[in-house]
Amino acid sequence: MTTQTSTFSSKNRSEMLEQMQTITYDLLVIGGGITGAGIALDAATRGMKTALIEMQDFAAGTSSRSTKLVHGGLRYLKQFEVGMVAEVGKERAIVYENGPHVTTPEWMLLPIHQGGTFGKFSTSVGLRVYDYLAGVKSQERRQMLNIQTTLAKEPLLKQQGLLGGGYYVEYRTDDARLTIEVMKAAVSHGATAINYAKAEELLYDHGLITGVLVKDMFDGKTYQVNAKKIVNATGPWVDKLRELDGSKKGKTLQLTKGIHLVIDRKRFPLQQAIYFDTPDKRMVFAIPRGEKTYVGTTDTFFQEDTSHPRMTKADRQYVLDAINFMFPTVKITEADVESSWAGVRPLISEEGKSASEISRKDEIWQSPSGLITIAGGKLTGYRKMAEMVVDLVSKLLAEAGQGHFSPCRTKHLPISGGDVGGSAYYEAFVARKTKEGISYGLTSQQAEKLVRLYGSNTEEVYRYLPSNQKNKAQQREGGKVDTHGLPADLYASLIYAIESEMTVKPIDFFIRRTGALFFDIAWVQTWKLPVIDFMSHYLNWTQSEREAHLRELDMHLYDAVVPQDESNRFSNAM
Q: What CATH number labels 14-62+176-251+360-399?
């Protein structure tokens, strides 16, 4: 699958918005997180004329701020949500095979302590049921470990009261990259997707929803976009759109917040992903990722600014206490926290239940106006959620005599970057493409990092390398490429992000396209000004636009480190 750069370049946003006014779409999706991206891909591959708008950047909400696991929901066995475990467990393997460059199997250790949430017998039975329900392949089925083997897997674990451990497979992902790759796949199949385009007003004809007044969040210009069916897939903003539609009745959302802390592995040398319980019987993940370890999540009710959730002192202390409870020798303090992120989960309200007890089930609602809303759900189940929504859209269009469309085609469809021959051939693909990157002058580390980030799109990224004869900029300037002082790999990534991933702002690049602000904040500090200068030149920003983008990036860097209730915040940028 090749990305259509002409239809997913940030340079083309205004022209695309203008063109959207001339088309009546079969389906307009509001919301550019993983759920919206999945719906757009499913609809486009069935032949529907599909468009998607997102008021922030793609994946800027919940879909870049999760625990970054495509997991089977072991915790939901405790709540007897057997159906959810069975469904999302099986979906893990599908998500993995369709995009092995953004999803990786990860063995997870569940330590069993005296008086803890899980006993040896219940863990053994629970993991066996989990394997059965999730259809886990034989080589990834659970193992029960004795004390010695558990400590050999992770020597930092609390030894007092340790009885052993359960060992099972989860799947680690980059949630924002997964969302972007699904969105790019939708675009390559004919969908139109625009970020920073807000649904300002819903449009009706005789009480039935027929379109949206879309506001460009940069110049304030509005565009009328018409569609036969409109889906509200806005995650935490679902109820706000239902209010616009006058249909916020019955079930509503309950937002909960979760935060994660990032610590250097030299300071917290975790060698094994751990799923452990806290003194108050919640469950927390500690996961090694490259040179960092990240730990989370909290689970608290949230009623503040949905677009900009932040870590508080209490959030940070809760996670620090959890770390030091389960790993008593590391003695982690707030000074060790390099970065953090906070995310909001849009759950369907259940009275009398705590934040961690509310179901992660999804539901579809249809209002009297015809607005279709998808609420709840989990990252892992995005493809099935999309299938259900598009099945409904297809049925409604057929009943109205507005077209007949094929069944779902996404079960075995690689996402953008996923054409690597499946998981069985992925490592061979990485080795081959890494070698090619070295031939262009990259180090093996730089080349491998690009290959693992972009999968089968690496070839397109390589075209932007200054040493590559196919580099269009090189041809244009008679053999010279002005990289503005950026290293070759960063230069190629940045142009690709602008031309093929609709990167509009520096924060899009540093947070959603690379994850660097969370996992390599020192690198962001080093390269933020050169990146902003390059983007300013490449995208023809004014000086005031450049300064606004810098302020916004600095605000996010600040928020990643400093808790909400101490010091003064920067004023909102842009």
A: 3.50.50.60
